[in-house]
Amino acid sequence: MHTLTMEGLLGAGTNAKLVNTPMRAAGEAERKGDRAAMERALGYAGAVTEQAESYQEKAAKGMEKEAEEKKETAEKLQETLIEKRTQEREELEERTQGTLAKANPTAEPTDLLELSEEGKQISFGNGAKAPEVSGTEESSPIELGGSVYTAAGEIVSAPEPGGELSTLA
């Protein structure tokens, strides 16, 4: 809490309590019929009330300054976070570019797809020839027969490779 705010709140609270004394004295003077004492007591009450109002203004100024300081602090924190995120992003991009450059220094960055022998046979099983790839892994051929489900949920035998599927079944 800002010091002006604390000072203003304490002063206003104290003066608000202090105004009770002259008001009580003014009430007693009125009951006794002492008009001079009553006016004097009300004068004191007015002065204490004015002093409480000045402390209230001080508290308001203190709260404004406190709000400004919090806003500035929040802006600085946000700027710091933005700079940090920007720096992290740049470092990540540099690392990514470095990794790509090491993997394939002459070509543009691309995605690679590796197919197993089974995948090659399935992909190129309809008459196209699979490209030659050197590898140490041997696999068994895939049978392309089997069962197919119709729209009604019935099982029918699958057509031979290169055959046609009928969607009317």
Oligomerization state? single chain
Which ranges are low-confidence, i.e. pLDDT below 50, for 5 or more consecutive residues?
135-144
Mean pLDDT reading? 79
Number of helices: 4
Structural class: mainly alpha
Rounded to the nearest angstrom, the distance between the terminal CA atoms is 80 Å
How would you sum up the global shape?
elongated
Report the β-strand fraction as a percent range. Answer: under 5%
If strands are numbered along the chain, what order do they take across the biggest sheet? Answer: 1-2
- Specify the helix fraction band: 55-70%
Largest pleated sheet: 2 strands, antiparallel
Radius of gyration: 44 Å
Order of helices and strands: HHHHEE
Please report the total strand number as a whole number: 2
Model description:
4% of the residues are buried. This protein is mainly alpha-helical and 169 residues long. It has helices spanning 3-18, 20-32, 35-103, 117-123, and strands spanning 147-149, 155-157. A hairpin with a 5-residue loop joins strand 1 (147-149) and strand 2. Helix content is 62%, strand content 4%. It is built from four helices and two strands, in the order H-H-H-H-E-E. The model is unreliable at 135-144 (pLDDT under 50).
Give a short overview:
The chain is mainly alpha-helical and 169 residues long. 62% of the residues lie in helices and 4% in strands.
